[in-house]
Amino acid sequence: MQNIEHYKGCILDARSHELRDGSGWNAEVYIAQPHGGSVLETQFVLQETFPTSDAAIDAALQVGRHKVQVGFEPKVVVPDRPNG
Fold first, then answer.
1. Dmax (CA) of the chain
2. How far apart are CA 73 and CA 48, in angstroms?
3. CATH numbers and ranges of domains, the chain
4. What pLDDT, on the 0 to 100 scale, is given for residue 55?
5. Which residues contact 66 (CB under 8 A, 6 or more apart)?
6. What does the DSSP assignment read for 28-71?
7. What's the pTM?
8. d(Cα 31, Cα 16) in Å, to the nearest integer?
9. 2-7, strands of its sheet edge to edge
10. In the chain, fewer beta carbons within 10 Å around the N or the C end?
11. pLDDT digits (tens, 9 = 90+) for 24-33
12. Phi first, then psi: what are they for 57, rounded to 5°?
């Protein structure tokens, strides 16, 4: 499952994945920041296991918002691609 949210000039892309054994869900959030003609994109993987996909997504968005508020060092530069 995936949920995208715009937050303070960034795009938070939260994703959840069901564990292979079906015992829960894990989550990650990608934070994209426009920077000139590029996008700075950073991935954060949550270490917790969640009982539902929705709980995993909510936690990932919360982590993403917190990272934007406190600041972080972007990891990857992705060139902008023209639409179309």
1. 43
2. 22
3. 2-79 (3.30.160.350)
4. 98
5. none
6. EEEEEEEETTEEEEEEEE----BSSHHHHHHHHHHHHHHHHHH-
7. 0.84
8. 15
9. 2-7, 10-18, 25-35, 38-45, 76-79
10. C
11. 999 999 999 8
12. -65, -45
